Description:
It is a single chain. The protein is an alpha/beta fold. It has three domains: about 1-160, Glutamyl-tRNA reductase, N-terminal domain (Beta Polymerase, domain 2), CATH 3.30.460; about 165-305, Rossmann fold; about 335-415, no CATH class. The chain is about 55% helix and about 15% strand. The protein has 18 helices and ten strands. The chain has helices spanning about 15-20, 25-35, 60-75, 80-85, 95-105, 115-130, 135-155, 165-175, 190-205, 215-225, 235-240, 260-265, 300-305, 315-340, 340-360, 365, 370-400, 405-415, and strands at about 1-10, 40-50, 50-60, 90, 185-190, 210, 230, 245-250, 275, 295. It has a six-stranded parallel β-sheet, with helices on both faces. It is elongated and about 100 Å long.
Amino acid sequence: MSIVVIGVNHRTGPIALLERVSLAGEALCKAVTGLVSRANIREAAILSTCNRTEVYAVAERFHGAYADIRDFFCELGGLQPDELHPHLYSQHDDAAVAHLFEVAAGLDSDVLGESEILGQVRGAWETAQAEGGAKATLNLLFRHAVETGKRARTETSIGRHTASVSHAAVEMANERLGSIAGRRVLVVGAGEMGEGVAVALVGAGATDIVVTNRTEARAMQLAQRVGGTIVPFSDLGDALSTADVLLTCTGAGSIVIDHDLVAAARRNTTNPLLVVDIAVPRDVAADVVEAGNVTLLNLDDLRDWAARGLALRAAEAERVRAIVAEEVERFGQESTARQAAPLVAQLHEKGEAVRQAELERFANRLASLEPGQRDAVEAVTRGIVAKLLHQMSVRLKEDAGSPQGERNSAAVRDLFDLG
């Protein structure tokens, strides 16, 4: 049994492909459930962000799991295998563990060291748990991943400057304009990314921030936090007519701002409009630039912009990689340890709890027994439990640290509900 990761990310595929395999909300939950129902996948979790969609799985057979997950991506994106293969990557066992730890630490992001990814990793784990996809092995893996991400940010300076995609988007806009201060900025989307954008705008000196969102209460809450105002989502066109900068990051899953909307909004103004779209799938249609005096930047532009600062963090990245290597080793040690003594102890505790419960259930019938007879019942029932669990305990200890040991350990934890 192996831990595998198979996915598409910003390094291997264009935005157009990432959009087709992006998942969120109920669709993400259903996808986890569907994956664990496949023959070769024992556990599964899906990490889907603006930069990647990755499946982490505990696989009975690697090649069978690879085929299952490849088919999942093809079905999700309406893709043929030949379209997907050039962009798909896969790793297993220690390499898969190291990959997740690097992702959680911010080493695999558009913006090196960005902080949002750690919460996204935690969210993927929580969804997998809720949908029955994360059990003994993935729970251990994701717990270590979160711990690795925390260590990277507390023990190094990897995230001290531009610490998120939303922060980087504001910095890029600020650099493009010379200064964002004094500009009217329209923020479309009041979720986690929108909140990050609005807070970063305040830090960059913006004082005229307008927020819109399909749920007006969320827009109001965010606007109050940053001293901004709101417009109803239905008045998006009016808001565009007076904006100097548009930053958009909704989870709509389809185009929110098209050419006709922008052209109508900008009909009576010659002022330039800078649009920064950091949503996946994209919020803004590519042809809005044809409306005139409109500049459109998206995640591809953000990647190019962020790449210029990589050298400044190279030393910190090496320190983070050292932490990742330590955590991969620690994960391996704990994985082996969990397969042997602690698991055997849990197994015997479970057996003893069942024995005690059965004796309690028959307490009235046993009440008339003499002390010697009671001792005999205790000895017989203890012996039965010990004999039933003996061979299983021996095999768990003998096979610890091997692929067979991993299979045995996971099976025992699942069958006896040992967590």
